[in-house]
Specification:
- About 25% of the residues are buried.
- With about 200 residues, this protein is α+β, with helices and mostly antiparallel strands.
- The chain is built from eight helices and five strands.
- Helix content is about 40%, strand content about 15%.
- It is globular and about 55 Å long.
């Protein structure tokens, strides 16, 4: 099955691929384009209409301050960190023209299971990536140490929130390579078609 253009919804869905954040360069989305992306990101399955997610934009003029705060958090958690580790943390903050931090913001008093709220946050993040692609950009969803650090989370929110991902958006500086994808035979089954269904 091939999709040779980006002119239909299915073609857009079938051709989205992740870029490396370090390879994303200007131009990034302007304010209106980013607003469009976030509107689309928010149109996601959301049992109970809880909106158990939110978005924090880190503007270009705040990246240096973010880098400093990330380094402080990294050193506090890893006092023996080597120079190359610190440099990698600093580089992380400066990747791509646009950075959106997606937070999972669970509504703990709700009867909606936490797992469903987490799935909704993941779906919102994926919608953001699809929207970036639809507008002619590429995105990279990163987690790593920073996404699991309470100190870093506290830069953007507070417990019980968690960082779902750092979404870097920009223009690819090199053609994006297709990665291997699983065949449908590997990931799709028909229930009841054999004796392995347990019934």
């Amino acid at each position: 099955m091939t999709f040779n253009d980006r002119t239909t919804p299915l073609s857009l869905l079938a051709t989205r691929r992740s870029a490396k954040a370090r390879d994303l360069v200007a131009p990034g989305p302007d304010a209106d384009q980013l607003a469009q992306m976030l509107h689309i990101a928010a149109r996601t399955p959301d049992h109970g209409k809880l909106a158990p997610w939110r978005f924090v934009i880190v503007p270009p003029d705040a990246r240096e301050r973010l880098a400093a705060r990330l380094i402080d958090a990294y050193r506090a958690e890893r006092p023996t960190a080597a120079r190359l580790e610190i440099e990698a943390v600093e580089m992380f903050a400066h990747q791509a023209p646009t950075l959106v931090v997606v937070l999972h913001s669970p509504k703990v008093a709700s009867a909606i299971p936490l797992w469903e709220q987490q799935l909704s946050a993941g779906a919102a993040t994926m919608n953001l990536e699809h929207a970036a692609h639809a507008l002619g950009f590429a995105a990279c969803w990163l987690t790593g140490w920073a996404a699991f650090s309470d100190r870093v989370r506290d830069l953007f929110g507070a417990a019980p929130e968690r960082i779902a991902g750092f979404i870097f958006i920009g223009t690819p500086s090199r053609p994006l390579e297709e990665r291997p994808r699983p065949s449908l035979d590997e990931i799709v089954a028909t229930w009841g078609a054999d004796a392995t269904d347990g019934f």
